[in-house]
Write a structure and sequence with these properties.
Elements (H helix, E strand, L loop, with lengths): L51 H10 L6 H4 L20 E7 L2 E6 L2 E5 L29 E3 L10 H4 L8 E4 L3 H6 L5 E4 L3 E5 L2 E6 L19 E5 L5 E4 L8 H8 L5 E5 L6 H4 L6 H11 L4 E4 L13 H12 L15 E4 L13 E3 L17 E4 L5 E4 L7
Parallel strand pairs: 3-4, 4-5, 5-6, 10-11, 11-12
Antiparallel strand pairs: 1-2, 1-13, 2-3, 7-8, 8-9, 9-10, 13-14, 15-16
Helix pairs in contact: 5-7, 7-8
Amino acid sequence: MSPTTPASLTGATLTTPLAPPFPPLAEPRPLGEHRVWPRTFHDRLTAPLPGLKALARFAREGAVRPGRDGLADIPRLPVAPAPLPSADSRTLAVTWAGHASWIIRIGGLTVLTDPVWSRRILGTPARITPVGVPWDSLPRVDAVVISHNHYDHLDAPTLRRLPRATPVFAPAGLGRWFRRRRFSCVTELDWWEGAELAGVRFDFVPAHHWSKRSLTDTCHSLWGGWILTNGDGRRLYFAGDTGYGHWFSRIGRRYPGIDLALMPIGAYDPRWWLGDVHCDPEEAVRATLDLGARRMAPMHWGTFVLSAEPVLEPLTRVRAAWEKAGLEREDLWDLPVGASSVLGGSAPRGARGTARSTTTNPHPETHTHPETHTHPETHTHPDGATETAAPHSAPH
């Protein structure tokens, strides 16, 4: 396989070829390869971890959760569960299950990102919105990608529901965690490495973050995001968990033509504590521009209360930042939990927003409580795509 263009994954020819990656992509690693890694990845940190002085300030200020006013909008959080859209090998479809958990349909595969279907995770209050897609409604899962080992991204109870033969793509150093749980096809990758599964390439890319799951394993495994590219050149970026920084422009140069960036916009306040490891909404928009991505779908908000910002603030701020940047409103896929968006056909390589999209209720302006039932309405966009509006609900 030639590593220079995504189209070479299956020999497909694009109407307008992608710019070549810089530097060229590495040859794909074998699936399930056992590798030896360094004991620590501290040298990959892009900011120092908090020291005693920062911990003392954090304990003194105690700003770990929003106040009563910040929690008052929980009933208004957008939730619109709907059936998964149909998808074929030429379709890129995404469904937001909540937090950093997505059901991605690409190249005929169904891929889960950082799957967390649990109601509660260690050290965090229970989720404030329900899981957007019931586990029993999922199609067969063809692969799982993991960004890092924090509990809100690596959830053992959820992963135990998967067949142990499910292919897992994981950061360097995290494979032993899966093999202890009898997963038989675990592919660990370093930054800028990739592997292929059924014509889809999975590339692991850097992030501004860190890893820790116990008192003794700080940065013993790597952290990062994922680029998924199908044979027709459709390309998706899943950021995982990250602060803002120089990696985004480098990722964009090496993986040009990103159709959709799944970007974290929440868990950012207080900035002095979280600014190095979590993007705020304005930084997420800036990162999308650095990537050269055509569209952005926000995530990592409205699910778990992890920090001090008001629960609805990430959505209002990202919409304002997107508009201020002069970007097309239709290219911000601010999905409710449980909603989907679809790009069909082969990947066009023109200006931003030229691909047709079908979105399930992307603009949550009206809300209903769980006991209220409404009938979905169908809306037609000027380009002929349809939008199905489903009711919004969230528990108090």
